Batch of 2 targets.
Target 1
Amino acid sequence: MKTILAILSFSMVTFSISAQDLYAVTESEIQFYSDSPLEKIEAINKKTKSFFKISTKTLMFVIPVISFKFEKPLMEEHFNENYLETEKFPTAKFSGTINEELDYTKNGTYDASATGKLTIHGVEQERSINGTITVKDSQLIFEGKFQIKLKDHDIDIPSIVVKNIAEVVDVTAKLVYEPKK
Amino acid sequence: MLKINCLLAFFLIAFSLVSFSQDDLMDMLEAEATEELGNEKVQATFKTQRLINLHSNETVKKKTLDFRVTHRFGSVGLYKAHDLFGMDNVNDIRISFDYGITENLQVGIARSKRQELIDGSFKFRPLTQTTNNKIPFSLVLLGQVGFTPQKDPDSLYLKTAHRFNYTYQLIIARKFGPSVSLEIAPTLTHRNIIRRYVNPENEAEEQNTIFALGAGGRFKITQRTAILIDYFYVFSQYRQNNTATPFYNPLGIGIEIETGGHVFHLVATNAAGIVAGNYLPYNNESWRGLGIKTGFNISRVFNVGKR
């Protein structure tokens, strides 16, 4: 009986160690800006789902595209209906790895980059994203800034609104992770 | 007992040592994101407030103003080439302003040529279809009051109250995917005063209140164009095979073209009037008799006020 208890408690310990390896997002903010001669468009999404696995340095996230919120509701409708086609392609994804070896037990902010596959509008692109990783006790905070060329993801801008929408869109991302329970 | 305990311990260890593969993790994220998506409201069931004759489930978005010009030319078959198939004539013109108070409530005023009708309306959407089908359709209530200030040589309007008519409509709409949206709309229209004519065929008398069932759909053909169709069946004994005052159920077919803030409709319909208070009680031309009117709707949306 004692041995069983020992095995049990050991298994619980190993379980908790393996769980510490995997981090899940608790707060997220992904914003994009399109700055064109006629119109500034920005939208924010707080519904990103993401995991980060320290042992394999794997970073992956899935964004429900329809959850991008715009200032003008008509823009939001056009974004979903005409450009991102969210009914056909409901999510945007990134799956890659962190390139740097970092010590996730020491508090501080580190420069980092992630390389992997970015899928938007159903089109996959190999991308490197630069940013920082901040270790704050049990939290990991990922911040990044990058650009998306609409053409790369087959997002067509009709000539009539070409002055309203930028060809390259700036994206900023802030993701806060905590150990997955 | 010991065996069971051993087994239990084994499973616990096995479970604790399982590390999720990358694909498993991605699947978990996808599932979470999909759940999140499900709570979102379905957008753009229709592109604008109206199909051809029928109202859609869409309301003007919050703090925006929809300015619309709706136009119906003369009948194609009346003078044929002599009025360029109706182009030189006008059956009805309606100019309207609708404002979105909230995402689900709009109010509007408008003026039509037919009956010189001035109308005020509200449109309220208590239910919006969600992507996870927890709410499988959108529900809209529409109320419209019309007032006619027109001259009255036949002394029909003895009191001011006689100049009013009312339309109430319940719209049940569903988007069946990116390119197909359908709706049905039970409709009630009431005129405060009518002449009690009798249908010579079945001796049914004209009624103040008429019930009709509307149905319509939008079928997307490209990213920015769609085909529209709508139809009303009017439940009225007086209007069945009436040889003295013929009546035909209104049928409309249209093409929708969308360019950013504008939505254009090019339409063909046998309805002469634009508001339900006009086309449901009175509609004496048919498609077969070339009583088709071409027409257009233009809608321009303006953002009004701070958000």
Target 2
Amino acid sequence: MFGSQGWCGLAAIGLSAFGASPTNIFAPVGTPADSIFGLSMLVLGITGAIFLVVAGMLLYVLVRYRSRTPDGTNEQEPPQIYGSNQIELSWTVVPILIVVMLFLATARVIYSTQHARKPVAALDVTVIGHQFWWEYSYPKLGIVTANELHIPVSDPTHPLPTYLTMSSADTDHSFWVPRLAGKTDLIPNQVNTMWIAPQTEGLYLGQCAQYCGTQHAKMLIRIYADTPASFAAWVSQQQQPAVQDPNVAEGREIFQHNACISCHTIRGTVATGRFGPDLTHVASRDTIASGSVPNTPANLRSFVDDPAHFKPGALMPPMHLDSHDLDAVTAYLGTLK
Amino acid sequence: MATQTPATEVLDLTVRKAPRRHWLEVLHDWVTTVDHKKIGLMYIGYSLIFLVVAGVEALLMRIQLAVPNNHFVSPQVFNGLFTMHGTTMVFFVGMPILFGFGNYLIPLMIGARDMAFPRLNAFSFWISAFGGLLLYFSYLGGSGLYGAGSAPDVGWFAYAPLTARVFSPGHSTDYWTLALLLSGIGTIGTALNIVATTICMRCPGMKMSRLPLLVWLYLVTSGLTFVAVGPLTAAQIMLMLDRYVGSHFFDTQAGGSAVLWMHFFWIFGHPEVYILVLPAFAFANEIIPVFSRKAIFGYPAMVAASVGIGFISLSVWAHHMFTVGLGPGANTFFTLATMIISVPTGIKIFNWLATLWGGKIHFTAAMMFAIGFLFQFLIAGLTGIMLSVAPFDWQLGNSYFVVAHFHYVLVGAILFMIFSAFYYWYPKITGRMLSERLGKWHFWLFLIGFHLTFDLMHVPGLLGMPRRIYTYEADRGWMIWNMLVSSGAAIQAVATLLFVFNMVWSYFKGAVAGADPWDAWTLEWSTTSPPPSYNFAKIPSVGSRRPLWDLKHPEDPDSDYEMEQSVPRKRSEESK
């Protein structure tokens, strides 16, 4: 009923789904992910070979030694064999040799990743995990932003890796962008580091990989690997204080006279809260709600009205602004390029 | 040659029909019993109930994940579901069902009339059962994270500091803690009992070298339980102190350590995997030889490998923590320790293959599930090797690949072997055969459902899907895989219903089994089915590893082989 064409179709859909995923671990674009990919191909090859040999033996044994008499009839019992030290020794020693080989290959990648020498030119970024968003700060550049990380691409001939120094403000989180590197946990009271070095520009997606509370699912990561020129432009733009547009003075007033300022910072204003994301350049971001919805005026309005609309369990409370005030605040935030 | 009690000489005193009793009398009898068989059955019954409950939780999760951005359940409910599913399956299905079989079988297999401490046995059961009820009472009595939901929602390994009162202010985490504390006490009691029974209650002639492999493996499992459950219990008490007395073991806001909890949990958690899988090996060691009609290949190597696995499994826990930042030295060590455990495990697989080799394999439902176990355990072991490679684990850890891997162990290996054990020992327990026809339907349906679900579940992990997310983005290419995975779950549910039906139907209508329906070799088959409360009218004595084989094959008894084995050793000792 399900012809060969159907199966082919299904296989094609499956394969295309594999290829189309923006978070495929087998499509690395930078060094740590690259060397992990190489090692994993070796491991897949060895385990695949072991599988074929052992499963083949199992199949052979099941066919060759199946009982040929119908149940209930008396048959001669097969000869009883209790063991053989030589044979058992051989299937102890051969696996040990495979383990040694695999271990050496693994140790090499562990040390080349976690013990790599940090180049002087490396970019430093501090990553703080929060329920349920990411805070990024560039200590040497004086930039603080959230959820969308901009880094320069790393030319393989002149590597320019980005070093992430990570910790958490509340519960455990884990930073995972599969095409760039494996994951590293963000743990309160502990500082971890990892590095990434994407070799082609583009947007790389990921998300929190350690259960951190109700909205763990929508703690998404977006990494923009920019060309050196566009990264420099982004840096100088982010270093500016917040735009002061007189057309949205009313929205700014409402923002500054509400609880917004106790959690959010907008540099150059009275808003200096640290609990929520820095909004100084919020309008320059593509998404809001840590990557879960596009940054459009309608979405922003809806989020300010009640964050639980997109992210039930988010820690920002509904602001209870009336429709007029909501419009004004949304307009104000929209000017913060 | 040692003397033996032939099976036929066992006095059958149960033929007389007992008068029908009032249901309250029956209930009183079960509640107050200290008989190892009744306690074993209560363990099995209660874990089967929890199996259905936790299975329904899994189905609800699979409905939610079938399509992206689904609104079937809220995140609060979903987080409660996966916490309850994991906790229930490990502590209130896996442990009790395996200890239930152990309780039932160990005294019968070593020719004893009961466990060493029958009242401790009853205490262990009731306190574990109370733990399970307490866990589920949280649906009525406790609110979750930030007062959300109404069940524990901190994940089954409940990483600190999510469990601190700041993040989890209600009582649901307390119910979780208390439930595990109580079940841990019960587990240690049962483990103690199994060790004491195995050491002290063996019938005459049952030397340790003649112990059925099932009993050996339960001995190792019980030893592991002593070492592993202690740290878990200690950690639960520390967590309670943190939450109510103001200590700061795991309270990161006051300088405590989140990583300390991870160490405590996984130094329990990884041996726990072996506590669960060794009994599955134990069943395979009995069932595969009987249906291949051959003695187990390499008995001493099987014992040594089991003990080896027991010891090595105590030194691998931090492979759950490769991404925590322990540094390259620790990651290298735990990679090596984890890889080494594949050596004794490999010995077991090869010895099972060698047992099948040259045999006459009978494809009964029990054997088919055992073969399914062999095949799936092979794959689970190989994905385990992939995960032991620390850099590969940086990608795969906490993704759906890991979820698929450990379900391959827990369902593909352990649950398949539990089903096999049901088909094999149900006739002994009830006196009636399970329907083979329904059993084969059950096997094939469950096999298809299992592979559809758990083979394909590896893929979203490779495509970057982390575990424990209540929904996912549509653009990640995960949907088709999740859809297929969910449909496989439905097939498994149907197969399980078939199994439940088979158990009920066969209890009343199944063919009468007789004492030894499988032409098997260990002592439990020498008494009636079901066995009388005193097990053996006359305590048997044995002269080899397979006493009933020797009885049935006086021309080629195992005891001859054991004599041959021991003679050269004696000679060499004399020559010293």
